[in-house]
Design a protein that fits this description.
Length: 190
């Protein structure tokens, strides 16, 4: 199913999978020296809470964009479609910003989803109709709750000023997303 999910992303926005050069859905594997971790950043990377934040934030963002594109192909519900468009635009923008911060900080970010996010994507890829809609809504609620907590924690406790500022700027956007998907969830349950 990963191949089918990748094809969905290809059809929607010209990407082949999450780990591609399209910054609205993913991040490219390091190809220039500004993204390659030096020995110093590699030491920081192994235990830095800031680096773990950046990794989790990008994986979450790639997931939101990819699932948003899938929702645009699978749902017939206009409210879910509108929400999915917002996911692609807002998380795509945040991904691009995070990638730029990482380049400046010489941080290497993940190029693909982790196993848990990939399983979620594969699971949704097998669904259609109201089953898809409900699973997508549930995934968005869960993902945005986790993302909000992640952003708030980094905004409060982060050591890297650029990442801390990114998290502080992004947290209200994630909060609005959570409120929007909660509202859709309530309306659909009626």
């Amino acid at each position: 199913m990963t191949v089918l999910f990748a094809a969905v992303l290809q059809a929607c926005h010209g990407t082949t999978k999450f780990g591609n050069t399209d910054s609205t859905s993913s991040v490219n594997k390091p190809s220039d020296s500004s993204q390659v971790a030096t020995a110093d950043t590699a030491k920081i990377r192994s235990g830095s809470a800031d680096i773990k934040f950046a990794d989790k934030a990008l994986i979450g963002g790639m997931t939101e964009v990819g699932l948003g594109k899938l929702a645009l192909m699978r749902t017939s519900n206009q409210k879910i479609r509108d929400f999915a468009h917002m996911m692609v635009a807002d998380h795509g923008k945040a991904n691009t910003e995070l990638i730029e911060i990482a380049k400046k900080e010489k941080i290497t970010l993940p190029a693909n989803l982790d196993a848990g996010h990939q399983r979620k994507a594969d699971s949704l890829d097998k669904m259609s109709g109201t089953d898809f809609d409900q699973a997508y809504i549930d995934a968005m609620i869960d993902g945005h709750k986790k993302a909000l907590s992640l952003m708030q924690n980094e905004a409060t406790n982060g050591k890297d000023t650029s990442l801390r500022a990114f998290a502080a700027k992004t947290a209200p956007v994630v909060q609005r997303h959570l409120q929007a998907i909660d509202k859709i969830h309530s309306e659909i349950k009626k």
